[in-house]
Amino acid sequence: MDSRFDGLRQRWPLPTQPRPVAIIGAGAIVRDAHLPAYRQAGFDVVAIHDRDRAKAQALADQNGIARVCDSLEEIAAIPGVVFDIAVVPEANADVLEHLPHGATVLIQKPMGRSLAEARQIVDVCERRHLTAAVNFQLRFSPMMLAVRDAIDRGLLGDVLDVEVRLACRTPWELWPFMSNLEHVEVPMHSIHYLDLIRSLLGEPRSAMSRSVPHPDHPTLRDARTSTILDFEAPVRCCLSLNHTYRFGPDGESATIRIEGTKGAVEVGLGLLLNYPNGEPETLRIVTEATHHQASVSVRSPWTDIPLEGRWFPDAFIGTMSNLQRFSAGEDAVLHTAVRDALRTMELVDACAQSNDRGGVRPGRSIDHTLRSEHSA
Q1: Separation between Cα atoms, residue 129 and residue 125, nearest integer Å
Q2: 122, 142, 169, 359: least surrounded by Cβ within 10 Å?
Q3: pTM, whole model, 2 decimals?
Q4: DSSP label at residue 234
Q5: What's the Cα-to-Cα distance from 129 to each of 1, 23, 210, 345, rounded to whole Å?
Q6: What totals of helices (H) and strands (E) does the chain contain, helices first?
Q7: Residue 151 sits in a domain of what CATH number?
């Protein structure tokens, strides 16, 4: 393997002195990702609470959690813990109000159902002086940490192109609460990629997005999305996300492709194939090397990078580690702090507005369209 690919970063460092964790919420994401991640990292989960006490008790019994709390007040009174909130989005603000002033807390995405709720959450966190981050964990997956490291090393040159493509089957039926959402795909799934892209490219100038339903999921407002993010030229960025592909595993795919002036990477999102069991995740990279004597660039072959973990559960170790390390003064930046997460929610909201307003009809000028809207 090309020595320039050696040691690409795939793990966030653990806190030197990990603090115990108290979890609020006992749903599937806690069972399938939070608890396995914390067990793998050696984080001590000391308590759990859920409105459905039986669910909380079952997870406690399965995972050796000593204490099941009957109320938010009871779990909030436990001293010295980091709170991990994994409840339905509309409950976040109320849960945060119950936490002690100055608490350290990780909030499961999305940060509310709307931009207004996201702003409310930021207000609560700042008023109560909470050290708070949102669990946008794709940034911290082994594959994307390695991609970020490759970009930082200059192996891709200037990033010119980011494309996310899915053709897979997402079992939306696992999350019945989504039937109540006005918008589904972008705030519950695309949000991962929107946050990741922001972390790589910064803030887009605008967003153009359209989400549509599918007859296989009649209770959902939408299940598939096409989005274009407008960055300064020459950057192109688009997402084509089909969660309702149903013609067999041979035709499924889930990839993130990033191209630059010197190289490219392609990430295979194996987690999304045959979900929730998943398939192996992959990362491959190609780059150019300049031979100074000949003054020519020679492209290396595409190289597979062995991965040291998966999006689920390994990325959840990274978000909790960054939060704890920042709280202890070991990390200078809290990468998914609520203020940064608010920018991702603003982008989600821009996609929703674009979806609701529609595009410009062929044969009609933008000025004429705007006049028609204003007159209406």
Answers
A1: 6
A2: 359
A3: 0.92
A4: T
A5: 48, 20, 37, 21
A6: 12, 15
A7: 3.30.360.10
Instruction: Single out the residue of 200, 133, 217 nearest to residue 164, CA to CA.
Output: 200
CA distance 43 to 334: 19
Burial class (CB in 10 A: 0-12, 13-18, 19+), 365: exposed
Buried b (16+ CB within 10 A) or exposed e, 11-37: bbebbeebbebbbbbbbebbbebbbbb
SS3 336: coil
> Which run of H or E residues covers position 166?
strand 159-167
DSSP 127: H
The contacts of residue 250 (CB under 8 Å, 6+ apart) are none
Question: Under a CB-based contact definition with an 8 Å cutoff, are residues 21 and 44 in contact?
Answer: yes
Per residue in 280-332, pLDDT tens? Answer: 999 999 999 755 555 556 777 899 999 999 999 999 999 999 999 999 999 99
- Dump the DSSP string for 189-228: IIHHHHHHHHHHH---SEEEEEEE--TT-TTSS--EEEEE
Query: How many domains are contained in the chain?
Result: 2
Instruction: Tokens for 148, please give them.
Output: 């970020």
Collect the ranges in the chain with pLDDT lower than 50.
Answer: none
Same domain, 228 and 331: no
One-letter amino acid at 328 equals: A
